[in-house]
Amino acid sequence: MKITGVETYVLEGLLEDKVFGWSQRVTDRRQAALCAVSTDDGIQGLGEAFYYGGPARIVANLIGDGYAPLLIGRDPFDTSVIWDFLYNWTRDQGMKGLPISALSAIDIALWDIKGKALGLPVYKLLGGPYRNRAHVYATGLYQPQNVASIEDALAKEALGYKEQGFSAMKLKVGYGIEKDLRYVKALREAVGNDIVLMVDANHAYNAAEAIRLAKGMENYEVYWFEEPVPPEDIDGYIEVKQKSNILIAGGEDEFTRYGFRELITRRAVDILQPDLCAAGGFTEMMKIVAMASAWNVPLIPHVWGTNVGLAASLQFFAALPHFPERRYPAEPFFEYDRSPHPLRDGVTQERFLMKDSYLDIPQRPGLGITLDMDFVRKHGV
Ligand SMILES: [Mg+2]
Prior knowledge:
Layout: E1 3-14, E2 20-21, E3 26-27, E4 29-39, E5 44-49, H1 56-71, H2 79-94, H3 98-118, H4 122-125, E6 133-139, E7 143-144, H5 150-164, E8 168-172, H6 177-191, E9 196-200, H7 207-217, E10 222-226, H8 234-243, E11 247-250, H9 256-265, E12 271-272, H10 276-279, H11 281-295, H12 307-318, E13 333-337, E14 358-360, H13 373-379
Parallel strand pairs: 6-8, 6-13, 8-9, 9-10, 10-11, 11-12
Antiparallel strand pairs: 1-4, 2-3, 2-7, 4-5, 6-14
Helix pairs in contact: 1-3, 2-3, 3-11, 5-6, 6-7, 7-8, 9-11
Bound molecules: magnesium ion (MG).
């Protein structure tokens, strides 16, 4: 089998009255960068590149103009060989960030092709399922804009998740310690003590501030504190982790086995959060998993995109081992983004619906999804 073409799709949807903010900025739109790799067998593989800050066209151009010409004529089964070749092609200026997100989308598409060609879901090719459904937590609780009381709006949103059956949810923090503590308190009081609550600062703080916030949050049973400090500040992570009684999570802004080597071997976090659509796709994620397993650092993937990235992440999640294996192993949480996203569901013909706090992992070949081309064309830019 040979690769014959690579298509990229850049989509955009405006949030209109659902504009939201977090510790770094406010956004009025969501974008997506998708790719489809074609073969001479007629099999097409799909991938998504994760990006923050956009525009998504930059990462799509990296796929279409940068990597696509290097893929034509190659065998899509040669995923490791292709990965190392493409990485080395842009290594001098592309060790982290968007080039690796672009490479991730291509790698995901190649695994989709392999699964479809063999008639097997991707998780089977990754070593088999440790689980066939994913226990989700709701990502949402961003900072609403133009509301009378942010605390009231957050409490209402959280109660909505609880009513839908979520048992865990994640709140954005990083707006200043006093404000963060008000939000955390309001949420904990609204949802009660039987809900698992995580917080995410999106690297808003230095280590001293993050430690102060962690100590303040101890009264509210926060399960993990995500991205307390900037991703480059590994010593800061270690300092916060040593002085916090809350688990420290991070890794959505880290890339490849080389980037994760530092987080893992220095034991900088309690929970590693690589994103399949950013850190390098399936090929690289399995190498990160192997390293995390050797150092016994639990891994819970970051997931934040359309149904293409979600479907791929579910396949990865099925094949994610326990940390460690034991008679009654701890089951990881799966991130289920519920923040406003006008493109998330419509890009695929399939829907992913939570039942009793779980998402089923598709058993269909490849990623188990089909693009809705009418939707993709309608929202393409
Ligand atoms: Mg995060």
